[in-house]
Amino acid sequence: MNFGEWRQLSPSAAARELHARIQTRLSLSQQRAVIAWLESEDGLAARLAAAPVAAPLAGVPYFAKDLFDVAGVPTFAGSTFLPEVRPTPKLDSTLVAALRAKGAALAGKTQLHEFAYGITGENPHYGDCEHPRFPGRTTGGSSSGSAAIVAAGIAPLALASDTGGSVRVPAAFCGLYGFRLTPRDRWISDAFPLSPSCDTAGWFTTNAADLRETIGALVGLRTSGRKPHGCYLALPDLDPDVAIACVAAAEKIAPAAEPIVQSDLLHAFAPALEAYNVLVAREAWEVHLPWADRFRDRYDPAVWQRLSRVHTLTTGQIDAAEIALTVLRLRWTQFFLTYDFLVMPATPCPALTKAECTLANRSRLLALTTPVSLAGLPVLSVPVPLPSGLSTGLQIVVNHPQSPAVNWALQQFSP
Question: Is the Cβ–Cβ distance between 121 and 144 less than 8 Å?
Answer without folding.
Answer: yes
